[in-house]
Amino acid sequence: MLALGAAGVWALPALAAPTPAATENKPPPAATADLFGDYLAGRHAEQIRDYPAATSWFEKAIVADPDSPELISRTFLMAVGAGNFDRARPLADKELKLDATDALAQLVLVVDRLKAGDAASALKRAATLPTDGVHRFIAPLALAWTRMAAGDLPGADAALQQLDKYNGFQPLKNFQLGLLYDFAGQGDKAEAFFDKTLADNSQLNWRLTDAIANFYERHGKADKAKALYKKFIDQNIGSEIAQTVMAARPSGVPKPLIGSASDGLAEAMFDLASVLNQTETIDLALIYDRFALALQPDFRLAQLLVADILSTQDEPAQSLAVLEQIPKNSPYSWSARLRAAADLEALDRSDEAVAQLKQMAAEAPKTIGADVQLGDILRNKKRFEEAGVAYNEAIERAAASGLPDRWALFYDRGVSYERSGQWQKAEVDLEHALELKPDQPLVLNYLGYSWIDKGVKLDQGLKMIEKAVELRPDDGYIVDSLGWAHYRMGDYAGAVEFLERAVELVPSDATINNHLGDAYWRTGREIEARYQWQRALQFGPDKDEVPPIEAKLDHGLAPVPASAPAIPAPAKPAERGG
After folding, report:
1. DSSP state of 299
2. How many CA atoms lie within 13 A of 351 on its CB side?
């Protein structure tokens, strides 16, 4: 849930309601019932991070009780979270009357005044932003660009120096200083700060690369720009963003990224959101990126970031709506379409996702991203033969483009081949993936498991799975593989040890519980075995796994043949998680 702060958290009784004396023995008026119903619907939408819906419900409630502090605060915050600044702006004044220290309300007014060209008022508002608390990072950035709007370059520089108080913000500070001095027309100072930024970031991201290369190109240093792009491409093999964006860019000297102080603050909010796009601070990242888009609505990278955050928050419909705002002629359209396909898949619109990715693959025969994502979707849908074809196309395209072999592509194709009954092809791919990445746990696990399942290379397979567990001791699916390997080799006591650990790590997986039930049965623990099989049924196994489990509940397991155990193995662990 978005962090409301002390001013925004009040209990339900804060809403206006008739006094007990007036309502004794009488049903509540319809307006009051609607108020509480709308409020509770808004709270539910807020809890599941559906901020547009929450805004809508709170808007209905606030009509019935326009002076409720609870509703003012919640409606304001949800409007910001949804990017509805037309609604947030009038509520910001009301919110500041409730809490004069509300940073988001102040920032809304900073944005409003900066966009209106009122630099003095924007600066006055920015000066009131808090220097501590959850929103402490925004004051230096807002002060810098509002001072820049007022023509105070030394003051803007001094504001950014305040970021030194926070660990890990040195690269952001230097990048912002570079942008600041570039905007002020002091190219030498800008370049010095950009060079420091690059020194602080050995691993390049796309925004940093493109922004600094833009500066180099505008200042007659095309060779440095070219070298920077090459470094990004070398560090991010297989990433298509540089290829697609650069191909769509007009020829000639590019325009500056920052054309106004408003653009500068938009960039600052986007950069801050990118830094905070982590599990613990993802809500803040969404809010700050919304501010970036309020300042610069056609900021395509900011739209992509909002879409990514919404997808992470399991809001694919909202993410898709953002992506659809990016026009087809945008350099970032390709990236948007790839993300849109993922959202379609999450919305159970797989046929649309598959069709879109096939169309994209046909449009760009020298790229691999659409084929890889197509393979992923088809494999997730257990259409393994088709997935293998998609991965094969990606591998062939990568080879034709001179890209180095990627272990993940050969692993994915190998899994698809194995699951579609093409073991000889699968083994070749999995072994090649292991050559490319010798200590990759997924490859060690899958290949080792497959060998043991087929009764070949037993010792080698077991050692590989043990190595995978050593590398990922808390991966329940890989621990399950080790337990099931012991089971397949007839070591039932050893199987129980590892399978019990796997169930502790992943309690609600049908296959792991089924495995443990089998191991219990073989060690004479029949009551516990039936309990585990019953649990397996409760956790949604695949349809073809249900009858065998039910049969075991009725009749138990058949005795082990004298030669070796021959229990049909369920789905491979790598296909169930890990």
Report:
1. -
2. 0
**Could you tell me what percentage of the chain is helix, strand and coil, using 3-state DSSP and rounding each to the nearest 5?**
70, 0, 30
Q: How confident is the model at residue 290 (pLDDT cuts 50, 70, 90)?
A: very high
Q: What digits encode the pLDDT tens for the residues 194-213?
A: 999 999 888 899 999 999 99
Domains of the chain, each with CATH number or no CATH = 1-12+27-100 (1.25.40.10), 299-347 (no CATH), 349-438 (1.25.40.10), 439-578 (1.25.40.10)
Q: What is the pTM of this model?
A: 0.86
User: For 349-381, how does the pLDDT look when each residue is reduced to its tens digit (9 = 90+)?
Assistant: 999 999 999 999 999 999 999 999 999 999 999
Phi and psi at residue 50, to the nearest 5°: -95, 80
> What is the distance between the alpha carbons of residues 444 and 437, in angstroms, rounded to a whole number?
10
d(CA 57, CA 34): 10
Q: Which two tokens stand for residue 437?
A: 């990445």
Nearest CA-CA partner of 45 in 90, 85, 77: 77
Instruction: Please give, one letter per residue, the 3-state secondary structure of 422-466.
Output: CHHHHHHHHHHHHHHCCCCHHHHHHHHHHHHHCCCCHHHHHHHHH
| Nearest alpha carbon to residue 42 among 34, 51, 54 | 54
Mean pLDDT, the chain, as a whole number? 90
Q: Is the pLDDT of residue 572 over 50?
A: no
Helix axes 441-453, 407-419, angle to 10 degrees: 30
Ramachandran angles phi, psi of 282, nearest 5°: -65, -30
> In whole angstroms, what is the distance from residue 502 CA to residue 463 CA?
18
